[in-house]
């Protein structure tokens, strides 16, 4: 259960990063260039709503976001989803 919640929090957190990137006009290629990963890898992170904590922190700082704040927002969203009877493993926007 804890792993599912942790995965769910990361899914919400990655979506927050995705929204930040779009709002700032930052492309996946720019993120790839900054992180040293391929654009295909970066696309997969956002498409699957999954990345490692290190990748998440690197991208968050690149986007001038506080990773702790984003994870806190994501955790709150995940808990609200569970409280509403939703599946915390399904990210809805």
Structural class: mainly alpha
Overall radius of gyration: 13 Å
Strand content: under 5%
* Helix and strand element order: HHHHH
Number of strands: 0
The count of helical stretches stands at 5
Proportion in helices: over 70%
Explained architecture:
The structure is a single chain. With 93 residues, the protein is mostly helical. It has five helices and no strands. It has helices at residues 2-24, 28-35, 39-48, 53-62, 67-83. 23% of the residues are buried. Mean pLDDT is 85; it is low at 88-93.
Helix and strand layout, with pairings?
Layout: H1 2-24, H2 28-35, H3 39-48, H4 53-62, H5 67-83
Labels describing this entry:
single chain; 93 residues; mainly alpha; 5 helices; disordered C terminus
Short description:
The protein is mainly α and 93 residues long. Helices cover 73% and strands 0% of the residues. Mean pLDDT is 85; it is low at 88-93.
């Amino acid at each position: 259960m804890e792993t599912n919640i942790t995965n769910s929090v990361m899914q919400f957190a990655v979506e927050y990063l995705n929204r930040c990137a779009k709002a700032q006009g930052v492309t996946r290629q720019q993120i790839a260039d900054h992180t040293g990963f391929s654009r295909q890898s970066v696309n997969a992170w956002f498409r699957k709503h999954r990345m490692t904590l290190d990748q998440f922190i690197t991208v968050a700082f690149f986007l001038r976001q506080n990773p702790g704040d984003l994870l806190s927002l994501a955790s709150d969203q995940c808990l609200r989803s569970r409280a509403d009877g939703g599946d915390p493993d399904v990210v809805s926007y």
